[in-house]
Design a protein that fits this description.
Elements: H1 3-9, H2 18-23, H3 27-30, E1 34-35, E2 39-40, H4 45-106, H5 110-124, E3 129-136, E4 141-148, E5 159-161, H6 165-173, E6 177-179, H7 182-185, H8 191-197, E7 201-209, E8 212-221, H9 229-280, H10 287-301, H11 306-317, H12 328-331, H13 339-345, H14 348-356, H15 367-371, H16 392-407, H17 418-428, H18 435-447
Length: 448
């Protein structure tokens, strides 16, 4: 074959580039062909188009799968966000209930506890205002106890009878009463007040403890609320805790009243003992009452606290109670006592100790009945205690006892004048009496 024709057959002409040679090949020869000395087409045009269509389908399917995956991811993220929000909300509700429980167990002030409850109610239930009404069992009336979120103080004067208004219905029927718009519903004596406050929605929850209605928790909103079950469950839990707080406060109040009545009965009893002794020994009539008053004044002047003053008062009242065991022949003898009679008389502090120490309630008051005849220099009785070994309450009382005894008339002498008794106390300071207490007592007498 001629040289020129041979190059033309191969698509190459001397002087041209290899790339130009490719362009002169037939189209089907230029598609995916191999040049290994000969040209062979690997795929036809129709097959290529079919493959392109397949690839485009695969790409479309992948794009749809990717879109679906993105949507699933978005749904999963939304579900996680919702779960996180619910978890945080439940945790805050748990913290609220825990705080209310702590208030119930640690706080004895009912109004403070109720304000804590209302704070959590308005914070976690999306409520604009709230009140707690307590049931007065004597008048069968719900009365305002605490409130939050109101502009005026008119709600504090609320008085609702059982069966009347929404709160009265909630208490009587023992169920939740809810009203979306109180202006349309009516049936509430406080509708005008709620309108002035701009309140529309109302929820009343009875507070029930141990089967008894203690009051009603009232919730108010400016706009209607569509509560879900979670909201209702939390409201129910709060109402149970609030009812428990009310019940605990009522129990504590009854216990405190009973304790006060018991203390009054104890005090009346020991005053009766002292009065019985004075009736037996007419010479000392009024003595216990006078020395008790002065002893309390002196103890306060010395800075003794109120808790200790209670025991000092009882000890002063009972200071001579041991004389109940002294025979009349000795106690009521008009003349001087013999040595044997004095020895018997000096046993009355011991009798007082033996009698009163058996009463736990009176044990803190024993210092005065047992030790008020002890002397600063150690020459007193019954134990011969000296200086500060003598209980402080007894040292205080001893000064007052000497003052009253010398100022009072006796069958065998007239009472001394105040200056005479003051001089005597100064003379006895450091021997019979505590000198520091004598100084304070004399200052107190001069200032009264």
């Amino acid at each position: 074959m001629p040289e020129k024709n041979r190059w033309l057959f191969r698509g190459y002409e001397p002087g041209t580039s290899l790339s130009a040679t490719r362009n002169v090949l037939p189209r089907e020869h230029r598609m995916n062909g191999r040049v290994n000395g000969t040209l062979k087409p690997d795929i036809t045009s129709s097959e290529l188009q079919q493959r392109i269509a397949e690839l485009e389908g695969m790409l479309a399917e992948r794009e749809l799968a990717l879109t679906a995956a993105q949507r699933r991811e978005e749904h999963l993220r939304a579900a996680l966000d919702s779960l996180h929000e619910r978890t945080v909300r439940h945790y805050r509700q748990f913290q609220s209930l825990r705080a209310v429980n702590q208030a119930i167990t640690a706080c004895l002030d009912l109004r403070l506890t109720l304000n804590i409850v209302l704070n959590h109610v308005t914070t976690h239930l999306d409520i604009d205002a709230a009140t707690i009404l307590l049931l007065n069992p004597h008048t069968q009336t719900l009365e305002y106890a605490a409130g939050r979120g109101f502009r005026s103080t008119q709600m504090q004067h609320a008085r609702v009878r059982l069966g009347e208004s929404y709160a009265g219905r909630a208490a009587q029927e023992r169920c939740l009463v809810s009203v979306d718009n109180v202006c349309h519903e009516g049936g509430c004596a406080r509708v005008s007040l709620m309108e002035e406050e701009g309140l529309t929605a109302y929820y009343g929850v009875p507070l029930i403890a141990r089967g008894q209605v203690k009051g009603v928790l009232e919730l108010f909103r400016h706009t209607p609320l569509m509560p879900d079950q979670e909201w209702l469950d939390f409201l129910e839990a709060l109402s149970r805790h609030t009812a428990l707080a009310l019940d605990n406060a009522e129990l504590f109040d009854r216990l405190q009243r009973s304790n006060d009545e018991l203390l009054q009965a104890y005090d009346a009893t020991i005053e009766g003992w002292a009065r019985a002794l004075e009736l037996r020994d007419a010479e000392t009539e009024g003595h216990s009452r006078r020395v008790t008053g002065l002893t309390m004044m002196l103890a306060r002047a010395m800075g003794i606290g109120e808790e200790e003053l209670v025991h000092i008062r009882r000890g002063a009242i009972l200071h001579d109670i041991g004389k109940m065991a002294i025979p009349d022949a000795i106690l009521l003898k008009s003349g001087p006592l013999t040595n044997e009679e004095q020895a018997i008389m000096r046993q009355h502090p011991v009798y007082a100790y033996e009698w009163l120490s058996a009463v736990p309630f009176l044990q803190p008051a024993l210092d005065i009945p047992y030790c008020h005849h002890e002397r600063w220099d150690g020459t007193g009785y019954p134990r011969g205690l000296k200086s500060e070994d003598i209980p402080l309450a007894a040292r205080i009382f001893a000064v007052v006892d000497v003052w009253d005894a010398l100022c009072s008339d006796r069958p065998y002498r007239k009472g001394w004048s105040a200056p005479q008794v003051q001089d005597y106390l100064r003379a006895q300071a450091g021997t019979h009496l505590d000198p520091h207490i004598v100084r304070i007592f004399l200052q107190m007498i001069e200032n009264t």
